Amino acid sequence: MKNFLITLIIILIPVKSFGLIEVDITRGNLNPLPVAVSPLSIDEESRKNFEKILKKKNIGSEISAIVENNLKISGLFNPLNKDAFLQEPDIANLKPRFEDWNLIKAQALITGKVSYVEEKLRVEFRLWDVLAGKEMMALAFTTVSSNWRRVGHIITDKVYERLTGERGYFDTRIIYVAEEGPKTQRVKKLAIMDQDGANNKFLTLGNELVLTPRFNPTSQMVTYLSYFRNLPRVYLLDIETGTQEVVGDFPGMTFAPRFSPDGKKIIMSFAKDGNSEIYTMDLENRIVEKITNHPSIDTSPSYSPDGKFISFNSDRSGYQQIYVMKSDGSNVKRISFGKGIYGTPVWSPRGDLIAFTKLHKGKFYIGVMRTDGSGERLLTENFYQEAPSWSPNGRVLIFYRETKTDSKGKGFSAKLWSIDLTGYNERQVPTPTDGSDPSWSSLLSN
Amino acid sequence: MKLNKILKNGFLIVVACLALSACATSKKSTGQMQGDVYTGTDTVEYLASGVPDRVFFATNESVLTTASRETLRKQAAWLRKNSKITIVLEGHADERGTREYNLALGERRANAAKDYLMTYGISSDRISVLSYGKERPVDSGSNPLAWSKNRRSVTVKAN
């Protein structure tokens, strides 16, 4: 946990409450805002120190490259090409020449500097409204040098928040299943990486099949399904310590685990004698509660962010459909009534929407609907895709997509993709191997 | 006269069949599926002579077909003769469903086979059930025939 701590030291200048530039986030990326990210300036001594510690020639440029990439993948911003910049990075301590930035059509400008202070990395950055010629935000913080990538993500979060009015989602990680090998004998490992694909790390060796990892919204814990010793069971993994334990003492397969919003319970399915029911287990007192009671398949449970409701999928009507019930299992109501079958409901962190997978006429869709089932909107269609997971601000969905094999069974791949809630900005999330079952963490720096 | 007519018709039917199978060679899937249940033997292994190791299911179904029940009766007879053998029933689904639902469906399919073996005198202590969902297809194709081979419950010797 220690190395994730970043201390916000001072706010240099109080943030003005009126918004000058506004980014319209309701309409997707039709007109991404042109923004100039000036490389963070760095003094020669600090540069040499960081070069020695981090093996990076110029940490200032590296950090601003992260900011630039984040802004670009959000789809809401268009970072301008550095070659066109007229003013050098050393503007950090000066007022920018707004007319120069105006000339290249930048509407917002990010400047800053990085320095080596008491063996730590100190960053100051400012966000400027170019048209109005005003400062919108100024922040400084200090952290351990190895956190330099996170510095880029935190700067992006602050800028995103200031310009869109919503929380950012860049200082986050994705846990997923890394896949390799032929389709009939896939080797699967748990893997974790930063939201932008950096710092990929494998958490298991691939000796046993692992599926569906999910983050605890409140800590560095993950719950997932492992076929350890050929007994498919729900496990708990502490990412920091590597400690693993099986969840509960069930005499059969437990699967489809997810945390409650307070992180204190795991909700999952338990299959026995051909029937799958939903159970919860309290992680403190280990009390197990049965939530559903129906001779059909009840699985893929997900809590509402206030913990009062649970959505799940069931084939009690004949085919897989989405249902919502109170968290004690009462008041079960079917909410999906469109054509096709529906699965993997996941409640948005904002509470107003449920994301799902839909199969209709041989095509798979990722979509969203309101929690009463109204307002269904399909975001993307493909041969196979499923299992959406929300960014912590409820703005972006990450999911996985598999390709159709050819007549010889060749050409299979599984990749992670993300899409904006508006249905715009669909893009592949880079992973070193194939990947599936992504789950988005909450913001690391809250 | 009548016989002649039958023979004639019969001949016609044979000709029609030949024509059909000639067409079918370009698309191998016909003839190995009934409805969408796999009826071929491409992937089938044998627990003993004449005892197939697996049964197949229709899309989204866990109901045993007539052919599946026949296979399971043969397995039950073999298990009764070899009373020390214990088995794992491995339930599988095709790739056209969500991962978690398919885990449950695989479990339901394997249990359908288990229940049938039990009615033919095999004790539940000798049977364990393991669902792989869609994680272990036998055929990596993305076509109806491959999917039909993958919707299966396989009886595996555990000892």
Structural features:
heterodimer, A: about 450 residues, mainly beta, 7-stranded mixed sheet, 4-stranded antiparallel sheet, about 10% helix, about 40% strand, globular, disordered N terminus, B: about 160 residues, alpha+beta, 60s Ribosomal Protein L30, Chain: A, 4-stranded mixed sheet, two-stranded antiparallel sheet, 4 helices
SSE layout and pairing:
The complex is a heterodimer of chains A (446) and B (159).
Chain A lengths: L6 E4 L22 E5 L3 E2 L1 H11 L4 H16 L2 E3 L18 H6 L4 E10 L2 E10 L4 E10 L4 H17 L8 E8 L6 E8 L6 E2 L7 E6 L5 E6 L6 E6 L5 E3 L7 E6 L5 E8 L2 E8 L5 E3 L7 E6 L5 E6 L6 E6 L6 E2 L6 E7 L5 E8 L2 E8 L6 E6 L1 E7 L5 E7 L11 E7 L6 E3 L4 E7 L6
Parallel strand pairs in A: 2-4, 2-5, 3-5
Antiparallel strand pairs in A: 1-7, 5-6, 6-7, 8-9, 8-31, 9-10, 11-12, 12-13, 13-14, 15-16, 16-17, 17-18, 19-20, 20-21, 21-22, 23-24, 24-25, 25-26, 27-28, 28-29, 29-30
Chain B lengths: L1 H23 L8 E2 L2 E2 L7 E3 L2 E2 L1 E3 L9 H16 L5 E6 L6 H21 L7 E7 L10 H7 L1 E6 L2
Parallel strand pairs in B: 6-7
Antiparallel strand pairs in B: 1-2, 3-4, 5-8, 6-8
Polypeptide structure, described:
The complex is a heterodimer of chains A (446) and B (159). Chain A has 446 residues and is mainly beta. Helix content of chain A is 11%, strand content 42%. The longest helix of chain A is centred in the middle third of the chain and has 17 residues, at 148-164. In chain A, α2 crosses α4 (148-164). Chain A has helices at residues 44-54, 59-74, 98-103, 148-164, and strands at residues 7-10, 33-37, 41-42, 77-79, 108-117, 120-129, 134-143, 173-180, 187-194, 201-202, 210-215, 221-226, 233-238, 244-246, 254-259, 265-272, 275-282, 288-290, 298-303, 309-314, 321-326, 333-334, 341-347, 353-360, 363-370, 377-382, 384-390, 396-402, 414-420, 427-429, 434-440. Chain B has four helices and eight strands. In chain B, strands 5-8-6-7 form a four-stranded mixed sheet. In chain B, strands 1-2 form a two-stranded antiparallel sheet. In chain B, strands 3-4 form a two-stranded antiparallel sheet. Mean pLDDT of chain B is 86; it is low at 1-29. Chain B is an alpha+beta fold. Chain B has one domain (2-157): OmpA-like domain (60s Ribosomal Protein L30, Chain: A). In chain B, β1 (33-34) and β2 (37-38) form a beta hairpin. The longest helix of chain B is centred in the N-terminal third of the chain and has 23 residues, at 2-24. In chain B, α2 packs across α3 (99-119). Chain A binds chain B through residues 182-186, 209, 211-212, 225, 230, 232, 252-253, 255-256, 269, 271, 273-276, 297, 299-300, 313, 315, 319-320, 343-344, 357, 359, 383-384, 386-387, 402, 404-405, 407-410, 412, 436-437, and chain B through 60, 62, 95-101, 103-105, 107-108, 111-112, 115, 129-132, 135-143, 146.
